[in-house]
Inverse folding.
């Protein structure tokens, strides 16, 4: 009998070790004899093709896809037991669609290991991760270390004044912060931002 499929969600801020955990989980499954494959959004062009690279440089072969729907097509044509998906918050698919695809995959006995940011730089939740958290069989929230005080970090603070929700390939402009350091630095950021726009008038 086929093993029961699970949804495993690794979430947390940037630099919290989500991708490393995704990699480790898939690696363990591989050793256990599962046929595994990893996917990543094609918008994530930080690294050379076909690899998921964590901050500690663990590499994992990954197929770049534009939509989560492509995973269903892949699963129809290949025998797989478990899939990994990195940076799930970058996919343009509607969250309800992604949930629907995941349910189909699990009905086909495919375990899904997902890694994704829980919140953007303004501490607003990423919708897809918000949808996946309650339906996960296993949910792991990872914490980086606050760059300001050394407590557990809570969110990824953006040091630059860019206001786009997603800024790909700008790792250097972020730092993990705890809740109180974040609140303090966000106030300063707003103040400085307004000052900059006043200076430009
Ligand atoms: Zn702090």
């Amino acid at each position: 009998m086929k093993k029961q499929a699970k949804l495993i969600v690794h979430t947390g801020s940037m630099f919290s070790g989500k991708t490393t955990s995704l990699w480790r989980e898939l690696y363990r499954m591989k050793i256990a004899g599962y046929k595994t494959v990893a996917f990543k959004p094609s918008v994530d062009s930080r690294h050379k093709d076909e690899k998921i690279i964590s901050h500690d440089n663990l590499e994992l072969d990954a197929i770049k896809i534009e939509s989560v729907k492509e995973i269903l097509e892949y699963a129809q044509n290949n025998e797989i037991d478990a899939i990994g998906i990195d940076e799930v918050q970058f996919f343009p698919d509607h969250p309800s669609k992604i949930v629907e695809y995941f349910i189909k995959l699990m009905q086909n006995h495919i375990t899904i290991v997902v890694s994704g940011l829980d919140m953007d730089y303004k501490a607003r939740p990423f919708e897809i991760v918000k949808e996946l958290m309650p339906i996960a069989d296993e949910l792991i929230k990872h914490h980086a270390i606050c760059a300001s005080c050394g407590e557990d970090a809570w969110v990824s603070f953006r040091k630059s004044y860019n206001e786009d929700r997603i800024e790909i390939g700008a790792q250097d402009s972020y730092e993990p912060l705890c809740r109180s350091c974040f609140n303090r630095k966000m106030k300063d950021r707003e103040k400085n931002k307004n000052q900059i726009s006043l200076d430009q008038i």
